[in-house]
Write a structure and sequence with these properties.
Number of strands: 4
Structural class: mainly alpha
Largest sheet: 2 strands, parallel
Order of helices and strands: HHEHEHEHEH
Radius of gyration: 20 Å
Shape: globular
Oligomer: single chain
Distance between the termini: 56 Å
Length: 175
C-alpha cells in the first residue's frame, strides 16, 4: 500500500531485488522527457552518426512505447537524428527483455553491435546473448566519469584532513 519514487540510478541498481520482493512499478512519468540530460556516451553516438548515419542506430529503453516521440524530439533537438521507428520503448525493465530485443535484431540480419546501458545487469545480459551468435560486438556500462566529481571530492578530503576550505583556490606556484 505504500508508494515511492526512485531515480534512474536507484532503479537500475535495485529493481531486480524489488521485483523479487513483489514491488510493482508505474512508469507513467517516463512517457515524457523532463529536464533531460545528455547521456555519458552521447558524444560517441554523434560520432557514430557522422560516420555511419543514423539509419542503423537504435534507442532501446525500458520506458513505455508512449515515450518514443518525446525521446525522438529530445535527441533531435540535441543533434542526434535517429529515425522515430528506431526508438523502442519496451515497457519492460528486465535485462532479459533487452537481451531478447537485441537477439531479434540478430535475427533481422544485424551483425555488428555497440550496446551501452547504465545498468550493469542489462550490459551483461546483452553480452551473454550476443556471445551465442557469431557477431561483432562491444558492450559497455554507460557511467559518468569519476573525474567529473574528483576535483570536488578531493577538495572535500583536504578540508577534512587539513582544514583548508574546499572552495579555496591557489595558483600553481603557491600550491
Amino acid at each position: 500500500g505504500n508508494t515511492g519514487t526512485l531515480n534512474a540510478e536507484q532503479y537500475a541498481k535495485t529493481y531486480e531485488d524489488l521485483l523479487d520482493q513483489g514491488y510493482k512499478f508505474d512508469f507513467s512519468d517516463f512517457n515524457r522527457v523532463v529536464k533531460g540530460k545528455l547521456a555519458p556516451l552521447f558524444k560517441k553516438a554523434l560520432k557514430l552518426q557522422s560516420k555511419f548515419g543514423p539509419e542503423n542506430m537504435f534507442v532501446l529503453t525500458a520506458r513505455p512505447p508512449a515515450a518514443q516521440k518525446p525521446i525522438f524530439d529530445f535527441l533531435k533537438a540535441n543533434g542526434l537524428n535517429i529515425p522515430l521507428k528506431n526508438i523502442t520503448g519496451l515497457g519492460n525493465s528486465t535485462s532479459e527483455a533487452k537481451a531478447l530485443w537485441v537477439a531479434g535484431k540478430v535475427g533481422e540480419g544485424y551483425n555488428d553491435f555497440y550496446f551501452a546501458d547504465d545498468a550493469l545487469q542489462n550490459v551483461q545480459a546483452v553480452d551473454n546473448i550476443l556471445e551465442q551468435f557469431d557477431v561483432k560486438r562491444k558492450v559497455q556500462q554507460a557511467r559518468v566519469k569519476f573525474s567529473k566529481s574528483m576535483d570536488k571530492d578531493f577538495n572535500d578530503i583536504i578540508e577534512d584532513v587539513k582544514g583548508i576550505k574546499a572552495e579555496k583556490r591557489y595558483s600553481q606556484v603557491k600550491a
